Amino acid sequence: MSPQIITIIGLVIMFVVATALPINMGAVAFALAFIVGGIWLGMDAKAVLGGFPGDLFLTLVGITYLFAIAQKNGTIDLLIHWAVKVVRGKLVAIPWVMFMITALLTAFGALGPAAVAIIGPVALRFAKQYRINPLLMGLLVIHGAQAGGFSPISVYGGITNKVVEKAGLPVSEMSVFLTSLGFNLAMAIICFFAFGGLALLKRHEPSRAESEAVPVNEASPRSFAIEGHGALVTPGGGTLSINPVALEAVSIKRDHVFTLIGLVGLGVASLIYSLNVGLVSMTVAVLLALLSPNAQKGAVESISWSTVLLIAGVVTYIEVLQKAGAVDFIGNGVSHIGIPLLGALLVCYVGGIVSAFASSAAVLGATIPLAVPFLLQGHLAPAGVICALAVSSTIVDVSPFSTNGALVVASAAPDEREKLFRRFLVYSGLVVALGPLAAWLVFVVPGWL
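Given the sequence above, the corresponding structure tokens read:
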């Protein structure tokens, strides 16, 4: 049996075992990476672990650690209620605010994971407090990041445009950008109505239960009542009232100022100077811990270690699969199909399936060249195929095994993570199954007709 087939069978086994039994999929993936790669295929330990996503590991740990500190010292609560004040209590506007912010960030050059890492934790904390479906909030954050992801000055846009230019294909930079923007906006609208948007339309203001505070620790000496407004304000990690008078009465503490400066610094460093999100977030978290050691107690325990194990294990095994030649095996077979229209569809699926587990940037650079041979035959419109490939390779970033999906799942409340992970898994499965087909029907088929 060929190495390519062996690794693909291992991938199937991983999903079956982790779905049927209460075992962390990441642990199963590490075991299979050793069994399939190390024993069966003869890879040494360095080769097997060569795919360990050190960058993603540090990003997940650093971001969840930083925002755990921000939550414990009350900064996240403060940000949430400032957001409520800005939208004047119209909860239906919040998911779309998150969508637009992440879209703007990526359109102006931010990496998708960097934008999701900054906006995701705030969005998920807001969803938790005001009973907004966390799946809806997380999906709009990710689709927002992808909506702006192909602007001419963005990372994905730059990769796609360079490959297209090298191949000599007549494809406009703006056409790819607007295609991704429109497709992800349509997906966001579908998600909005499918996952609780109609209920939000009927909730013009937060309920009384949400408006009033629910202290994390009633015995906390840092909690105090705003007399005459029936609200409890807990700057030390509790819940703040959305009552405007009560909110105005809340003074910003020293820890809040340091944390806000740190969050702004994270944004500037990662979005403007393109510094590593994981390294910057970990540095900011450590500085906050040094400034206020007591305020960060228990923050390390709040890191989503089970999610980190899951993502690291799966990505490591996918690298073993790639080193065994499984991806090239499938891609080369697709590119030699004699029917261009069918070949375009299959390349879209290759890009979508692989990108659900691997770097979208890397997949874009690999799948577009696969389409060049049948594009040069002149039977298909190059712009339509490139747009379809761009959408297919990034729309699946909602997968909990991709950086964006993993960041959102890790940002959820601890009691919601497992359920949210499974819901993301189901949704991403539908997107992987139907997304490339939809992109092919919308962008490729009309050019062929």
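DSSP finds 22 helices and two strands in the chain. Try to locate this feature in the token string yourself.
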